[in-house]
Amino acid sequence: MATNYGSKRLVVGAHYGFRDWLSQRVTAVLMALFTLVLGVQMLFGGTLDYYRWSAIFTPQWMKFLTFVVFVSLAWHAWVGMRDIWMDYIKPVGLRLTLQVFTIVWLVGCAGWFIQVLWRL
Q1: Phi and psi angles of residue 63, each rounded to the nearest 5 degrees, phi first
Q2: Does the N-terminal or the C-terminal CB of the chain have fewer CB atoms within 10 Å?
Q3: CATH number of the domain within which 51 lies
Q4: Per the domain annotation, does 2 fall within a domain?
Q5: How many domains does the structure of the chain reveal?
Q6: DSSP state string for 26-68
Q7: What's the pLDDT tens digit per position in 22-57?
């Protein structure tokens, strides 16, 4: 006859843990690498004025890389804010409102970002 000690652990929730942890690390590394690439271009590219800044973002590969980094930034922000709302805001209605506001804000920022990036 087997003896049981304690109670069986019941794990509930959405099981976001590892996936969110990994996405936060991957997006952070992408943003850090982009910062280094941009920093090198600014340091060794000559005088930093509007024309130089525009020249940095003119090549299509740089626009694509910048867009990927912005999507990474938005995802990074979403995961972080969603976790904060889920951990600290207990009333469901308020938490849902804050999550919807966060999504609307991030989508609005993405639209503005795309306009700025492709206007250069």
Answers
A1: -65, -40
A2: N
A3: 1.20.1300.10
A4: no
A5: 1
A6: HHHHHHHHHHHHHHHHHHHSSS-SHHHHHHHT-SHHHHHHHHH
A7: 999 999 999 999 999 999 988 887 888 889 888 888
